[in-house]
């Protein structure tokens, strides 16, 4: 038993020191006024920090409302597109075709590559005269603008990079799920005269429900925590077009030096993620019963 605990201890201590303690500390700071200075300058704020961030709340004017709207829009587009792309790639590359292993590695590579290099490359390709606009011009679509510097396109640039980067990672999960589906089910369906779509809808999709459920939860959490891609490609701009919740938390905490307000927004983010996860758990149960 001691040997087992000794193997678990490093991971447990890492989680305790790097994740659990900061979360508790952030929860405490959310009810305090603190600018990061001396301890004797800390004062109890109660619910004032939460009242301040929700003051004049609006999805079109207030910082919290705009960042919440942007994060929700990014999540609503990125999650389903990533799931569809990952499942499509997994089904194509699940076959033992020549070069399948090579292409699996190719599609997985963006996830382990340097996020800074990825974002810099995509920012260049999405410039006004970049390769993306040139390719679109060949098919009659003339953008004529830099994607990351245009309000109407900046969010789509972030979504595109998010889907492109994460699809390969979740493709691996779907590959594992597909390979665990018993082949006898497809053979029986073939005997019964089922076509490809019927096999997918009645066998593949239900058998992949646990995988899809896990992927959707992880993707929602990842999307609500989006920061690096935004910070590198758009820095929340143009204006506040791509400013996300985590970007807002970072600005409050490390630029405006208002740790209490930043922690309050962080607690709002935590509650939102918990509520969305609970809704997903309920939806997963209904999906399983329906299937």
Description of the structure:
The chain has 13 helices and two strands; from the N terminus they run αββαααααααααααα. It has helices at 2-29, 48-54, 63-93, 100-112, 115-125, 131-138, 151-179, 183-191, 196-207, 209-224, 228-233, 245-255, 259-290; strands at residues 32-33, 43-44. α3 runs antiparallel to α10 (209-224) and α4 packs across α7. The relative contact order is 0.13. The mean pLDDT is 87.
| Physical arrangement of strands within the biggest beta sheet | 1-2
| Shape category | globular
Strand content: under 5%
Radius of gyration: 23 Å
Helix content: over 70%
User: How would a crystallographer describe the biggest sheet?
Assistant: 2 strands, antiparallel
- Helix segment count? 13
The overall pLDDT, averaged over residues, is 87
Overall number of strands? 2
Stretches where pLDDT is under 50 for at least 5 consecutive residues are none
Distance between the termini: 42 Å
List the helices and strands in order. Answer: HEEHHHHHHHHHHHH
Structural class: mainly alpha
Structure at a glance:
The protein has 13 helices and two strands; from the N terminus they run αββαααααααααααα. With 291 residues, it is mainly α. The model has no long low-confidence stretch (mean pLDDT 87).
